Q: What sequence folds into this?
């Protein structure tokens, strides 16, 4: 790379407000040479990125790029520019087909014509390039893109998609053209619901302030998936033998977008309009915050803020004098899932523990894992749905361990608190019991304290609730698993632990005061989130 090209690269990586100043500071002859270099560099492009984050995103070397942050930063323009530029077969996606229609308008603005657009096929052909445009409103809509290769896949508003959709569609990011680069690029704001938290988890090195090895904006990291289907961070680009096949680790990064770097919108009052929003809406949409408060879906069973408040109440140690009361066990025997256990001390839950399914292949191994962490003769609640946990339950009962089976699909006679509705099955009953315990509006407030975990937050807030006549039914575990792209193990383990076992209200006199030589403590927690400017109840 020439000195002039290096200077061009450095300048175009600057934020737009700094780019102009740096360019003006150059000697006239050097500035003119730089302008000629820039024209040569972009002569074949139908769309040219603005200096700053757009430029960095356009020329980013990552296999997977998340370009996110503030609205108006030109995220969708980058996807369109790539499709019209270096890529041959592109797929541009929004969650719904109606939303995807904006791609057509934006491409027309760039080209100045609709020539080449086929509205019936939702595709655009430009100079030998093919651009497919589509939506993925229903979970199963991802099947529409099965087997169709695209060297560019662009997800706009990625947090609106499920992780399962992203991973499934991404499998066909490939090309038969020698030398054609393939990549997945996504644009998004911060998640507005718990179902978008998977994005923060996937790009945790850049977005999670608690990450133990944080990455800088634009820094490349490499990842691969091991034999059990778990993602592993690599030390750099490399090859691994997985299930007898050689696979290479894929690079990933995050580049933050800013409204100020998009002059088309920065010159309008769009930024002022975003800043006129209040609270968490301002944090998400005006400031590009990936850690702001999350909204609820209309039929969401457990409000997000209730779970967040319970996680705010959590402390590293259980209350003094309170024994372990129960252990919820979500069993995995082989496969990519994990055997997951939740240990409950009255209303305080310890950190979730999990073990790969390959290490709990039979009842003896599951029982050994559970009993290693069991204390105080706690009741063990084992998920026996599908038969996976039956041998583990039999193993424990056969060894005089107090244990019971949990079958979510089994019918129940339990009814709602107001006695107006019957619960359709045990799974509904158990989730509603935890929902009632999490409700901050009950006398004395909620005492539930849950360990901090984005996975647990997403699991507990994933199921929807449906009321039909006099019956209440929770969304099935299979449907939730399909939507999340994984089993909600942590959430189910916590629900099972609350469903069975002793509680202070009924067993206070039976708990020995000798535990710490003090009577059991009641968790009072911190002030509810509502006292810190955040709502304490569900958003409906």
A:
């Amino acid at each position: 790379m020439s000195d002039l090209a290096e200077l061009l690269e450095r300048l175009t990586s600057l934020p737009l407000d700094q780019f102009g100043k740096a360019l003006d500071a150059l000697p006239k002859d050097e500035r003119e040479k730089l302008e000629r270099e820039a024209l040569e560099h972009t002569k074949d492009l139908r769309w040219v990125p603005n200096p700053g984050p757009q430029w960095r995103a356009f020329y980013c070397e990552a296999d997977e790029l998340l370009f996110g942050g503030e609205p108006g930063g030109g995220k969708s323009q980058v996807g369109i520019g790539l499709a019209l530029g270096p890529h041959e077969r592109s797929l541009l996606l929004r969650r719904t087909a109606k939303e995807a229609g904006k791609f057509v308008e934006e491409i027309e603005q760039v080209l100045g014509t609709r020539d080449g657009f086929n509205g019936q096929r939702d595709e655009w052909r430009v100079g030998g390039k093919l651009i497919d445009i589509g939506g993925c409103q229903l979970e199963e809509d991802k099947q529409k893109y099965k087997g169709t290769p695209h060297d560019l896949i662009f997800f706009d508003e990625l947090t609106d998609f499920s992780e399962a959709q992203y991973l499934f569609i991404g499998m066909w990011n490939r090309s038969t053209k020698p030398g054609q680069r393939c990549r997945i690029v996504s644009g998004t704001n911060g998640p507005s619901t718990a179902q978008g938290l998977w994005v923060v988890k996937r790009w945790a090195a850049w977005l999670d302030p608690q990450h133990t090895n944080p990455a800088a904006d634009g820094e490349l990291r490499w990842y691969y998936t091991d034999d059990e289907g778990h993602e592993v961070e690599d030390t750099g680009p490399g090859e691994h033998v997985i299930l007898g096949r050689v696979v290479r680790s894929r690079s990933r990064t995050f580049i933050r977008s800013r409204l100020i770097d998009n002059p088309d919108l920065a010159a309008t009052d769009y930024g002022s309009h975003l800043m006129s929003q209040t609270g968490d809406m301002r944090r998400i949409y005006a400031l590009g915050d990936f850690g702001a408060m999350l909204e609820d879906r209309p039929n969401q069973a457990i409000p997000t803020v209730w779970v967040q408040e319970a996680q705010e109440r959590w402390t590293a140690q259980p209350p003094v004098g309170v024994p372990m009361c129960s252990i919820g066990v979500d069993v995995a025997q082989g496969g990519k899932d994990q055997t997951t256990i939740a240990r409950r001390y009255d209303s305080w839950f310890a950190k979730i523990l999990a073990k790969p399914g390959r290490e709990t292949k039979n009842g003896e191994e599951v029982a050994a894992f559970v009993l290693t962490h069991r204390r105080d003769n706690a009741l063990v609640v084992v998920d026996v749905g599908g038969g996976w946990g039956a041998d583990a339950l039999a193993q424990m009962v056969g060894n005089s361990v107090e244990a019971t089976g949990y079958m979510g699909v089994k019918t129940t006679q339990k009814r709602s608190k107001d006695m107006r509705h019957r619960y359709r099955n045990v799974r509904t009953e158990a989730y509603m019991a935890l929902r009632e315990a999490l409700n901050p509006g009950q006398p004395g407030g909620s005492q539930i304290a849950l360990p901090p975990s984005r996975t647990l937050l997403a699991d507990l807030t994933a199921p929807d609730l449906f009321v039909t006549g006099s019956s209440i039914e929770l969304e099935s575990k299979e449907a939730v698993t399909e939507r999340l792209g994984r089993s909600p193990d942590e959430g189910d383990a916590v629900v099972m632990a609350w469903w069975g076992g002793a509680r202070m209200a009924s067993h206070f006199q039976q708990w020995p005061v000798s535990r710490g030589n003090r009577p059991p403590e009641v968790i009072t927690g911190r002030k509810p989130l509502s006292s810190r400017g955040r709502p304490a109840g569900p958003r409906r």
Notes: The longest strand covers residues 250-257.
